[in-house]
Amino acid sequence: DAGVIQSPRHEVTEMGQEVTLRCKPISGHDYLFWYRQTMMRGLELLIYFNNNVPIDDSGMPEDRFSAKMPNASFSTLKIQPSEPRDSAVYFCASSGGTVSEDEQFFGPGTRLTVL
Amino acid sequence: RKEVEQDPGPFNVPEGATVAFNCTYSNSASQSFFWYRQDCRKEPKLLMSVYSSGNEDGRFTAQLNRASQYISLLIRDSKLSDSATYLCVVNPTAESSASKIIFGSGTRLSIRP
Fold first, then answer.
1. Beta carbons of B106 and A106 less than 8 Å apart
2. Nearest CA-CA partner of A102 in B68, B51, B80, B60
3. Residues A101/B105/A35/A53 CA torsion (nearest 10 deg)
4. Is A50 in the B-facing interface, judged by CB distances under 8 Å?
5. CA-to-CA distance for B90 and B50, rounded, in angstroms?
6. Rounded Cα–Cα distance for residues A34 and B88 (Å)
7. CA-CA distance, A107 to A113, in Å (whole number)?
8. pLDDT, tens digit, for every residue of A42-78?
9. Which chain B residues touch A if contact means CB-CB below 8 Å?
């Protein structure tokens, strides 16, 4: 199994630009999570989906952030317009399936820098 | 008060030493507890779940104290490869463990030769 796949791995953009982060969860997992990690705030849950449906988006910082999951194998996190304070590592994770349902499997993350 | 609190460290200990971390949680109804490990510039990975009776996996022992609302991780005979950040994770609800969980800010451990 390839694990959770995220792209791009690194993104450098200028303030005001739109940023789209992508995630492919592990096949068969029915939960998908988006996290943001910074030195100051640690790992924060932004939103999670169950069976492609958003369940809790209370962690999404503001309207500039949006997430979609059009099918079981793909999700996006979009920031529009981006700001320097959005600079962080964004992780996607998935869980569920038949083995170790409790465990969340993380992708390698996207390191975002907004200038 | 944060839902999950950890001593950020860093803990700097010699190879072969025993080291222990504690983590406190605020919601007494919390049902599931875990320790994750995160290497520098890598993603978090599950180290072990924490069961009520305590559990051991090789050199690692996890304990849960519901009365005092804390969990602990003990590492015996530490190796250089144990250097990482250890994240305490709590599911604050009775829902499925696969749903919303809370990560602590992590305890940084550095093992020196």
1. no
2. B51
3. 50
4. yes
5. 10
6. 18
7. 18
8. 899 999 999 999 998 989 988 999 999 999 999 999 9
9. 32, 34, 42-46, 49, 87, 96-106
